Amino acid sequence: GQSLEQPSEVTAVEGAIVQINCTYQTSGFYGLSWYQQHDGGAPTFLSYNALDGLEETGRFSSFLSRSDSYGYLLLQELQMKDSASYFCAYSTPLVFGKGTRLSVIA
Amino acid sequence: KAGVTQTPRYLIKTRGQQVTLSCSPISGHRSVSWYQQTPGQGLQFLFEYFSETQRNKGNFPGRFSGRQFSNSRSEMNVSTLELGDSALYLCASSLSHPYNSPLHFGNGTRLTVT
Question: Which site in B2, B32, B75, B86 is 20 to 30 Å from B93, CA atoms measured?
């Protein structure tokens, strides 16, 4: 079957770095995507890793290790506006994890 | 470029009724996917359409159906509504395959079944 596991909640301090992990189990793999969703808003695309390694986009980076069936989203220089839910997703059609709620505190 | 538009934004229906939700994708996007979002369950895949053909279907009962028109606009229909169908229904469009072409989501239709 297919499944993704990610922590349900993470709390971090403004200005710090936080890592949100995602492990997956699937028979067919087409890369790992990350989406952000603020309360009351629509999910928005953050990044996509098709191959192993690190992809960097500003303060956000995403990492994938296909041999370990594992990826993570790294958020640096945390800001209050980063408080949101973060979802990893994979496969086709796109299957989402249950999301990690990130709370950034002062 | 206009984003993904979903109508209506809110709906209140009674058990046993049926409902139709509408989605207009970003111009040029041919893939439209539908998701159900409930607290604690995340986003659950309903179906995906590409060029008027259902390309993939999630694990939902047959009461949930959809279609896509030649202009890529899509509708989903839920018949014989149940209380458990109360959720946020999200539509997303992409240029091609959603796994490597970012999904662009609409703001959703919040359905409440009483």
Answer: B86
